[in-house]
Amino acid sequence: QSCIIKRYCEKRFVPKYLATIGIDYGVTKVQVRDREIKVNIFDMAGDPLRQTRLRAAHRRVRNEFYKDTQGVILVYDVGQKESFDALDAWLAEMKQELGPHGNMENIVFVVCANKIDCTKHRSVDESEGRLWAESRGFLYFETSAQTGEGINEMFQTFYSAIIDLCDNGGKRPPSSVGVGFTKEQADAIRRIRNSKDSWDMLGVKPGATRDEVNKAYRKLAVLLHPDKCVAPGSEDAFKAVVNARTALLKNIK
Fold this sequence. Notes:
Its main location: nucleus. The chain is α/β, with parallel strands linked by helices. It has helices spanning 2-10, 53-62, 81-85, 87-98, 126-134, 151-167, 183-193, 198-202, 210-224, 234-250, and strands spanning 23-32, 35-44, 71-77, 108-114, 139-142.
């Protein structure tokens, strides 16, 4: 995230940098919709999953900065699956620090899939990242701090969404991010993506009958058909289900 901020604020890429210790803080003025606004940026340090004393120290510093947050940029490296998997831990930490009276529904979240220039090493594809973000009502952008791709667009959209939040009395407008698909569809796509075999993909036990396989297939086909499902990754999930059914029926008499 430090490289993204430097690319945006300083218009340059820093290939080597020291890890953020505590909090990096910056102030900048930007023009959004004919308004000049002052933006306070807090660059937080530390990995919420790293089991070290340094992790605890980082968290003690971070927890003072969650209160009164209006917008959050969640960044992961598309070439490191563990950084994508850590997004849930970041959300959990923020929710805990905000406490029972904090309302994360009134914060603008942007998910930033960074390092898209490293195509050969990519391990989290766009549909997986977009599904995670949009199923939660978060904005999603693909960026490269090295080339600058997507950086300005991401920040401008982020600021515009925060202005909408402020103009709406501090509440995130319902129309700020349109999901357009159900939790059931999103969960099905994730399960299919992570399935270990065709049985698991269709949600049937090994040795199931033709009728059981066909019944499971029809349920998923209706749920995920590209003509009716707009969730990211639905087309690939639908094709995988079709192939899984074909493979299983070949071996069932």
